[in-house]
Amino acid sequence: MATQPPSRTKFYRDKRNGKVLGVCAGIADYTGFDVTLIRIMLVLAIFMGPGAGLLPVYFIVGWLASDKPRELAYDSADERRFWQGVRQSPARTTRDIHASFRAIDRRLADVESYVLSNNRSLANEIEQLR
Predict the structure, then answer these.
(1) Closest to 69 in 3D by CA, of 130, 124, 16, 20
(2) Which residues are paired to 13 by β-bridges?
(3) Among 11, 32, 42, 99, which is least packed, fewest CB within 10 Å?
(4) How many other C-beta atoms can be found within 10 angstroms of the C-beta atom of residue 13?
(5) The whole model's pTM is what?
(6) What is the pLDDT of residue 8?
(7) Between the CA of residue 82 and those of 34, 53, 70, 92, 103, what are the distances in Å?
(8) What average pLDDT values come out for the chain (130 residues) when binned by 10 residues?
(9) Inter-axis angle of helices 23-31 and 77-88, to 10 degrees?
(10) How many CB atoms lie within 10 A of CB 112?
(11) How far apart, in whole angstroms, are the C-alpha atoms of residue 80 and residue 25?
């Protein structure tokens, strides 16, 4: 039976950046919020009102969720923001990538038309380089 490769869009516990089980760090990684903010919200929810039921939920999630694979570690902050954007809105991310490729294609077409045009000054510069 073949195993599936790890997915960047799945929720994982982040034990490398976590304190207890890595659940808050995993939530922060998945949503893009700061891990300290997630921890403060959890503590406030537990001690304020009916949030005492969150503690067993925390441990159940810590027990059920799988650890974040090492190959999914981010190399840069830009890569982290990109994958958080993919998780939040895949359609918007696809649209942004498509727009970037269109812009690159437009710029490449402009360069191509400039190089291939009957531009005498450019032809003279190239001849001088030879």
Answers:
(1) 16
(2) 67
(3) 99
(4) 23
(5) 0.57
(6) 66
(7) 16, 34, 18, 11, 19
(8) 64 81 86 88 83 81 82 73 77 87 93 76 78
(9) 80
(10) 10
(11) 13
What region, left, alpha or beta, does residue 65 occupy, with left being phi > 0 and alpha being psi -120 to 50 degrees? beta
Q: Report d(CA 60, CA 52) in Å as an integer.
A: 14
- Other beta carbons within 10 angstroms of residue 25's beta carbon come to 22
d(CA 31, CA 87) in angstroms, rounded, equals 8
Q: Which two tokens stand for residue 84?
A: 């958080």
CB atoms within 10 A of CB 130: 4
Handedness of CA 83, 84, 88, 94 (dihedral sign): negative
For 95, the token pair is 């649209």
The pLDDT value recorded for residue 7 is: 67
